[in-house]
Amino acid sequence: MQTMLMYDSTIGELLERLYAVISFEEGDEPAWDGLKQVFSEHARITRISHEGTDYLSLSDFLAMTRSLVDAGAYTSFYEVEVARRVEHFGNVAQVFSAYETRRHRRASQALDRGVNSIQLIREGGRWRVLGLLWDETYTNPKLDFSALFPTEDARG
Amino acid sequence: MAKIRSFFSRTRKVQTADRFVSELQNEGIIMQRAGSGDGPEWVIDGSPLKNFGSCSYMGLERHPLLLAGAEEALRRYGSNFSISRAYLQCSLYEELEEALGRAMGRHVIVTPSTTLAHLAALPILVGERDLVLLDQFAHASLHMATELIDDVPIELVRHSRLDAIERQLVEAGDRYDRVWYLCDGVYSMLGDFAPFAGLATLLKRYPKLHLYVDDAHAMSWAGQSGRGMALQHFPSSERVFVAVSLSKAFGATGGALALPSSELKERVRRCGGPMVFSGPIPPAGLGAALASARLHLEPEFETMQLELGDRIESARTLLGERGLALATDDATPIFMLHYDATWEVTNVIRALRERGFFCCPSTFPAVPMNKPSIRFTVSRHNSLPDIRELVEHLSAVSAPRHSIVRPQASEDEMSLESQSAAG
């Protein structure tokens, strides 16, 4: 995997943490405290779904996630980044991050594939997620990322 | 603490469910029309398919005694008995409740369905100073019924997690008169049992704990005289209340509540909304149910249960030999296999139907988003050779095999490095 532009290596660490804290094993829960650390307190999370667009604060996002877990809509969640494009200037970075969700870590097929648009801000010397936006109306378990990430190791 | 509040609006949830269900409907694998009755085969689109989808686990729907019972009731009482039971009820009700009472060892009141049993019972059983714990995977009808008791705190509990139940009991302390745990005896999708042994321990440890069990999928095939799992485990507990179905393995129609006292039974009859305001079961259904209840009391019924048990064990053994992991280790007539993606489920269902087998897809909202699954059932209609044939075909069309291995909680962390961007 290569990046199109040079960026602070801690951006990569933050993105890895982001995917780690939203994922959780069977019977477990997302890392709620970890989520609060990854996001800026001013973060906006936007989810475009077939049923409408959710414009969420961080607390709304946590409430939505908890609601889905409590109701059993997800008993585990495993999302992993498979390709990334980063642009970085000063304390600002924007990331196009291709992801796969899987039933569990060893699953042979993706449940779904899509792209997260992530805006980062460096606050107090640490990168945090200021914006997270994704579009579920275009996700597809067989989505080919090669057009979006021509120079990346986009796995089809 | 408040009643369950979903993040999403009711309309939004309907839209989401509609989308997921429509996808399977558009694939042509649900919402289909049968060209035959229940039995060893179902005719769909003119093709006979071996029936591995029925909830008539005991295969009683064509038993001569049930057919005769229905016919006699139809001739004697006509096609309908159209008056509220609050005023007048068909005499078959009393005979049926008496026979069910002997089979189940409880005071039984028959209801038009299991769902209506919940709607009738819960507002009467649950007091205004009680706490309700609802298993997240309890049947949808139980979730629905809690809408009628939304003046008390209702907490969703992770599926069969005794630790979560006990935590709630400890936290509840003396703040509530009673703490109810609402669950299924056998879960209709996963096919697993409620954690009865652990619940027995909690019942002893916490006098405030009361169980309300939807045992619809355990009726008839499980327990002495087919009383189901909950009453088999708790035959005489004053703190266990059970709803069952007469429309699944029982082979007839309707539902029933098995209650610890005649006073409570009468109260449900007097005050349970659907008992007064919902239409009664037609006489033919009552006649079939009465015949089935009497059959449950015959010595031969245990032999019939064992016949089903042999089929369940055979299917489990064959699946295990082929490395097809089930969602549960519990031996019930419900078999669920998880797949990694919904399109795999669709492909496997189609392939099985091309090979002459009817199984069911189970995707969200019937199961969690992360567990697209195939659900099949085994009944006394299924011969041992047919079961072997199904498993062979299931194995053949489920490649790659490792994709349906059940994940182990203790599995080693897989390196993210190989899958994520290098940064």
Describe the structure.
The complex is a heterodimer of chains A (156) and B (423). Chain A contains three helices and six strands, in the order ααββαββββ. Chain A has 156 residues and is α+β, with helices and mostly antiparallel strands. Chain A has a single domain (9-135), classed as Nuclear Transport Factor 2, Chain: A. In chain A, strands 2-1-6-5-4-3 form a six-stranded mixed sheet. In chain A, a hairpin with a 2-residue loop joins β1 (39-49) and β2 (52-57). The two termini of chain A are 14 Å apart. With 423 residues, chain B is an alpha/beta fold. Chain B folds into two domains: 16-51 and 299-404, Alpha-Beta Complex (Aspartate Aminotransferase, domain 1); 64-296, 3-Layer(aba) Sandwich (Aspartate Aminotransferase, domain 2). In chain B, 39% of the residues lie in helices and 14% in strands. Chain B has helices at 10-26, 64-77, 91-104, 114-125, 140-145, 162-172, 196-205, 229-233, 262-271, 273-277, 283-296, 300-321, 342-354, 384-397; strands at residues 41-44, 47-51, 107-111, 131-135, 154-157, 179-184, 209-214, 240-245, 255-259, 334-338, 357-358, 360-362, 373-377. Chain B has a seven-stranded mixed sheet with strand order 3-9-8-7-6-4-5, sandwiched between helices. In chain B, α7 links the parallel β6 and β7. Chain B is globular. The model of chain B is unreliable at 401-423 (pLDDT under 50). Chains A and B meet through α1, α3, β3 and β4 of A and α1 and α13 of B.
Question: What labels describe this entry?
Answer:
heterodimer, A: 156 residues, alpha+beta, 22% helix, disordered N terminus, B: 423 residues, alpha/beta, Aspartate Aminotransferase, domain 1, seven-stranded mixed sheet, 14 helices, 13 strands
Overall radius of gyration of chain B: 22 Å
Report low-confidence residues of chain B grouped into runs of 5 or more.
401-423
**Shape by Cα distribution of chain B:** globular
Helix content of chain A: 10-25%
| Chain pair with largest interface | A-B, 53 and 43 residues
Order of helices and strands of chain B: HEEHHEHEHEHEHEHEEHHHHEHEEEH
**Total helix count of chain B?**
14
Helices and strands of chain A, in order, run as: HHEEHEEEE
In CATH, the topology of chain A is named: Nuclear Transport Factor 2, Chain: A
Mean pLDDT of chain B: 92
What value does the average pLDDT of chain A take? 90
Radius of gyration of chain A: 15 Å
Largest sheet of chain B: 7 strands, mixed
When the domains of chain B are counted, the total is 2
The separation of the N and C termini of chain B measures 44 Å
Helix/strand-derived category of chain A reads: alpha+beta
